[in-house]
Protein backbone atom coordinates (compact mmCIF):
# COMPACT_ATOMS: atom_id res chain seq x y z
CA UNK A 1 0.00 0.00 0.00
CA UNK A 2 2.79 2.45 0.81
CA UNK A 3 4.45 1.84 -2.57
CA UNK A 4 1.22 2.80 -4.29
CA UNK A 5 1.07 6.11 -2.46
CA UNK A 6 4.68 6.89 -3.38
CA UNK A 7 4.34 5.89 -7.02
CA UNK A 8 1.08 7.82 -7.26
CA UNK A 9 2.87 10.96 -5.99
CA UNK A 10 5.51 10.64 -8.69
CA UNK A 11 2.83 10.22 -11.35
CA UNK A 12 0.83 13.18 -10.02
CA UNK A 13 3.91 15.42 -9.82
CA UNK A 14 4.81 14.52 -13.41
CA UNK A 15 1.27 15.32 -14.53
CA UNK A 16 1.40 18.67 -12.70
CA UNK A 17 4.54 19.53 -14.68
CA UNK A 18 2.74 18.55 -17.87
CA UNK A 19 5.37 16.12 -19.08
CA UNK A 20 5.20 12.61 -20.42
CA UNK A 21 7.10 9.67 -19.01
CA UNK A 22 9.50 9.96 -21.95
CA UNK A 23 10.13 13.66 -21.40
CA UNK A 24 10.86 13.10 -17.71
CA UNK A 25 13.09 10.14 -18.53
CA UNK A 26 15.07 12.20 -21.04
CA UNK A 27 15.42 15.03 -18.53
CA UNK A 28 16.91 12.83 -15.81
CA UNK A 29 18.81 10.34 -17.96
CA UNK A 30 16.83 7.12 -17.61
CA UNK A 31 14.52 5.13 -19.86
CA UNK A 32 10.80 5.67 -20.14
CA UNK A 33 10.41 2.12 -18.84
CA UNK A 34 12.21 3.09 -15.62
CA UNK A 35 9.75 5.92 -15.03
CA UNK A 36 6.88 3.56 -15.74
CA UNK A 37 8.21 1.02 -13.24
CA UNK A 38 8.67 3.68 -10.55
CA UNK A 39 5.14 4.94 -11.11
CA UNK A 40 3.79 1.38 -10.98
CA UNK A 41 5.59 0.74 -7.71
CA UNK A 42 7.68 -2.03 -9.28
CA UNK A 43 11.08 -0.35 -8.96
CA UNK A 44 12.83 1.22 -5.98
CA UNK A 45 15.01 4.04 -7.31
CA UNK A 46 18.42 4.80 -5.86
CA UNK A 47 18.88 7.91 -3.76
CA UNK A 48 20.60 9.62 -6.68
CA UNK A 49 17.67 8.89 -8.96
CA UNK A 50 15.23 10.08 -6.28
CA UNK A 51 17.13 13.36 -6.09
CA UNK A 52 17.08 13.79 -9.88
CA UNK A 53 13.35 13.05 -9.94
CA UNK A 54 12.64 15.55 -7.17
CA UNK A 55 14.67 18.30 -8.83
CA UNK A 56 13.13 17.70 -12.24
CA UNK A 57 9.62 17.74 -10.80
CA UNK A 58 10.20 20.75 -8.55
CA UNK A 59 9.44 18.73 -5.42
CA UNK A 60 11.31 17.72 -2.29
CA UNK A 61 12.21 14.14 -1.45
CA UNK A 62 9.60 14.29 1.29
CA UNK A 63 6.95 15.43 -1.20
CA UNK A 64 7.57 12.41 -3.39
CA UNK A 65 8.81 9.64 -1.15
CA UNK A 66 7.96 10.16 2.52
CA UNK A 67 5.14 7.94 3.68
CA UNK A 68 3.46 8.40 7.05
CA UNK A 69 2.81 5.08 8.75
Overview of the structural elements:
The chain has one domain: Orthogonal Bundle (434 Repressor (Amino-terminal Domain)), CATH 1.10.260. The mean pLDDT is 90. Helix content is 71%, strand content 0%. It has 69 residues and is an all-alpha fold. It starts with a helix and ends with a helix. The chain has 5 helices and no strands. Helix 2 (21-28) packs across helix 3 (32-40).
Architecture blueprint of SSEs:
Elements: H1 2-17, H2 21-28, H3 32-40, H4 47-57, H5 61-65
Helix pairs in contact: 2-3
Arithmetic mean pLDDT: 90
Low-pLDDT stretches are none
CATH class: Mainly Alpha
Using the 3D structure, state the CATH architecture. Orthogonal Bundle
* DSSP helical segment count: 5
In CATH terms, the superfamily is: lambda repressor-like DNA-binding domains
Sheet of most strands: none
Determine the strand fraction and express it as a percent band: under 5%
Multimer state: single chain
Q: What share of residues is helical? A: over 70%
Q: What name does the CATH topology carry? A: 434 Repressor (Amino-terminal Domain)
Order of helices and strands: HHHHH
For the record, the count of structural domains works out to 1
- Count the beta strands: 0
Q: What is the SS-derived class?
A: mainly alpha
Q: What characteristic shape results from the CA principal axes? A: globular
Rounded radius of gyration (Å): 11 Å
* N- and C-termini, Cα separation: 11 Å
Amino acid sequence: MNEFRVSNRVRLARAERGCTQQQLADLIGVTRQTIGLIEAGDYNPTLGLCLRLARALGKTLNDLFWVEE
